[in-house]
Amino acid sequence: MKKIKLFLPLFVLMLVLAACGDQESHEGHSEDESHGDHEEDPSMEALEVKLNGPEEVKQGETVTFKAMVTQGKEHVADADEVTFEVWKEGTKDDSQMIEASNDGEGMYSIETTFDEEGTYFVQSHVTARSMHTMPKQQVTVAKSE
Questions:
Q1: Which domain holds residue 138?
Q2: Tally of domains within the chain
Q3: What is the CATH number of the domain that holds 115?
Q4: Are 28 and 66 members of one domain?
Q5: pLDDT tens, position by position, for the chain (145 residues)?
Q6: What would the DSSP string read from start to end of 1-61?
Q7: Are strands 96-99 and 81-88 parallel, antiparallel or unpaired?
Q8: Residues 23 and 47 in one domain
Q9: Does the pTM of the predicted model rise above 0.85?
Q10: 74, containing H or E segment
């Protein structure tokens, strides 16, 4: 039992050192191997979606929600799928999925109308470049006057 207690920490330490050494050998490229200046692969940057729409609307009013999709500094105009999910608070199981139109230059949008007053959620589902992101926004719908 004492041998195991001594061996286990040493084994873990060896694994950690081996992993660090392997990482250093991949990072330590010479100028010849890297073909000049090293730049990060833009396809490795995170997909970002900025959801934009009103936070307060009147019942029965048609409103627009937009999603600006970017990866790094590049606008993503070729997303595989962009849909918006809309539901009233407490009724996510009855949500409505609306396919977004591609407005160009990374902008995607929908128009929707809220028939009842209350609190709603609008969540965009964006799949592009093997990534998926789902930002959500809360919307308060007031009774129309």
A1: 42-142
A2: 2
A3: 2.60.40.730
A4: no
A5: 555 555 556 555 555 555 555 444 444 544 444 444 444 555 679 999 999 999 999 999 999 999 999 999 999 999 999 999 999 999 999 999 999 999 999 999 999 999 999 999 999 999 999 999 999 999 999 998 7
A6: -HHHHHHHHHHHHHHHHHHHHHHHHHH---HHHHTSS----GGGSPEEEEEE--SEEETT-
A7: antiparallel
A8: no
A9: no
A10: strand 74-75
